[in-house]
Amino acid sequence: MSGPASPPVVPGEVVLEHASRTFSPYGDRTRTLKEFAFGRRREAGLPPVRALDDVSLHVRPGDTVGIVGRNGAGKSSTLRVLAGIVPLQEGRVACGGRVVSLLELGAGFGREFTGRENVYLTGALHGLSRAQIDERLEAIIAFSELREFIDMPIRTYSSGMLVRLGFAITAQLDADVLLIDEVLAVGDEAFQRKCMRRISERIAAGTTLLIVSHSPLAIERICGRVLVLESGRVIFDGPTPQGLLEYHRLLGEGEPVIERVQPTGTRPGLVEALEIRDGSGRRRQLFHSGDPIRVLMRLRDRIPEGAPALVLAIRDRFGRPVFATQTRPQPSQGGAWMVFEIPRLALLGGDYDLVVGGYPEIDRLTGFSVAEEPDAEGVVDLRGRWSVQELIEVAS
Amino acid sequence: MLRYRFLFEQLVRRELRARYKGSALGLLWYLVNPLLLMAVYGLIFGVFIRSAPTSEHDYLLFLFVGLIVWLFFSQALLAAASALTEQVALVSRVRFPRVAIPTSVVTVQMITFCALLLLVLPVTAAVRGILGTPLLLLVPLVVCLYAFVLGVCLMASITHAYFRDVQPILSALLLPWFFLTPIYFVPEKAPGVAGSAVARTFLEWVNPIAPFIRALRAVVYGGVFPTAGELAYVAIAAVVALTAGQLLFRRLEGELAVIL
After folding, report:
1. What is the number of structural domains in chain B?
2. Do A112 and B22 touch (CB under 8 A)?
3. pTM (whole model) above 0.90
4. Fewer CB within 10 Å: N-end or C-end of chain A?
5. Which residue of A has its CA nearest to B100?
6. Per residue in A230-284, pLDDT tens?
7. Could you tell me the residue range of the domain that residue B166 belongs to?
8. Dist CA A170 CA A255 (whole Å)
């Protein structure tokens, strides 16, 4: 994995020089020999996506940098390039010292291995020797709070336990550069606080931090510097308050990015266009909790008898379904705009994906954001009233 | 690479553990499986098909020595081909030398091969009296075999990541390939083949695994030195396959996280 000669860096320093990387919009996945040998793949024709477009970045040791931008702006690609997982096509990248990314909690765990064995395996993946892991083992077990389970195979662990073990290992790797994609939604709240404390300790100890997040609150809390990406380019690089303003301006004004999703089957998609509008009919991407929303979907011209159901789903930033509904389009509706009206958006601050398509395929995908509210956290907006009342006795 | 020796050891252990997880026989399955196969092949070629075209006195031993080489080759190839695509999470999220994945898979099969070899050796030593200077060639031959299989497996695993047909093609090829490999017969004694120089060349030299089988069988079963031609072939094939495998792997591994 050696690219062109990397610029010299000190531990904790991160440098990107004129970095560019494009991806095929459909990924390069599942090519078969047939497609390779007998001409183009059927989806050919769309230009490649520039995930990083001439990005230059210099991060000094100990800096805390938040990377924000709309969906598909190149945030995660930047992290993956810095982590050395995806190579650049042009330009140079260098990260000084040990680079640890929290993209990888538990990646590589052997299910039949015990917790303890997985500590050694994960340490080895990060280039640690047995002796170096021996030194850290006690701290890892203590941090994970899994002492009673540490000699059981991890297939018996719950997903929360796996993430705890994963974070405990990562936390003890003494990273010079720490890469985080999305703020941790790890285990219970107490453990999350512990993770944040540990990250703060590392920052205090001089670790460089680069964090991708959709949550302005988290960025504001952790980062001294913000990088705003748009279409693979850095459009702002500076202090956090200005950076977040820039980000909000981008979300409020910009044309929403509608992605055409890779068709998973051979049928043409059911939905050919997708728009999100606000109550007054303007196209928007940033909303407030309680706003009215109208989702507009143009159906394709010919809808056969027995066409699949039209599904509309909202997912949170981890891809978890938040809401889904469906309707069955009739042949007479070919070419028409279907509208789904949400009178009151009952979601709290964060980024969401909106996907639509003829079940089970996804034809179109877009993202929208909901501004953070000062008085509530979570996903669903159930804000009510607090009050003091006389207890009303209920007859049993 | 030294820095990652410990990683390699851990991956081999994980691979060993993951197969036959939670089963009663556990690691023993690594031996039971090939032993069972060998018993069946022994029954077919040693008993049912009595006209096996050899004049070997200890036909079963003759068969087994060739068979364990073949089993190593074929099992390693199949396992290595899908090794990278089975480790998507690891490859797309962690930076480490990707070559460690197919190498650990091949090494696990190598451990099985060595265990089987150690089972067969005392028997051939007792029955055939093979203890002599040719046995000194055993270790170099096994090293060459490992290098050759590893090289071929590196090519198979990296090309399968790009073209998902590689593994199915291999599994379709391996059975006919087995029957064309001089495991249960000797080409110079096989009727219809012995007279044809083209057929003999094909069976003995074009099939790259054949010289390995013949050389190892000369040492382990025959107690004699392999021919100079076989020794040269084995050494060159090992170097060529390993070099080509590494070059190809290094060329293509950069995009693995994108492809998978």
Report:
1. 1
2. yes
3. no
4. C
5. A125
6. 889 999 999 988 888 788 777 765 454 555 554 444 456 788 888 899 888 888 8
7. 2-259
8. 39
